Amino acid sequence: MKILQIITIATLTLGLSQMAYADYHGGDGKVCEHKGGMLEADANKDGVISRDEFTAAHQKMADKMFSRMDTNNDGNIDQAERDAMKTNMKAKMDERRKSGEMKHDCNNK
């Protein structure tokens, strides 16, 4: 029962944050049009995200992340690949901090 409550709360939180995020206005006053997130999970576009749709969307994202990290395509993420990922992420964050991109705007991808 507790797991069901946690999943329900998490789903509602994600859904509400997606609604708020969808109407986000960038620094220039323009409305950002974001595609993805919870809306992308609704495969049959019926306005409801089923457990199967939710699971499929997250599996797709996990597969993409794994493929990005498994740079030698051997089906494993070794220490060197983890270190490279950490270094790459740190460099990107440092670059974003220096350029002032840390706050969200429509140009961030």
The percent range for strand residues is: under 5%
Helix residue percentage: 55-70%
Helix- and strand-based class?
mainly alpha
Q: What's the domain count? A: 2
What's the pLDDT, averaged over the residues?
77
SS element count, helices: 4
Largest sheet: none
**Overall 3D geometry?**
extended
Number of strands: 0
Q: List SSEs in N-to-C order.
A: HHHH
Rg: 17 Å
Describe the structure.
With 109 residues, this protein is mainly α. The protein folds into two domains: 1-34; 48-94. Helix content is 61%, strand content 0%. It has four helices and no strands. The protein has helices at 2-22, 37-41, 51-69, 79-99. The protein is extended.
Give a topology summary.
Layout: H1 2-22, H2 37-41, H3 51-69, H4 79-99
What's a concise summary of this model?
This protein has helices at residues 2-22, 37-41, 51-69, 79-99.
List keywords for this structure.
mainly alpha, 109 residues, 2 domains, 4 helices
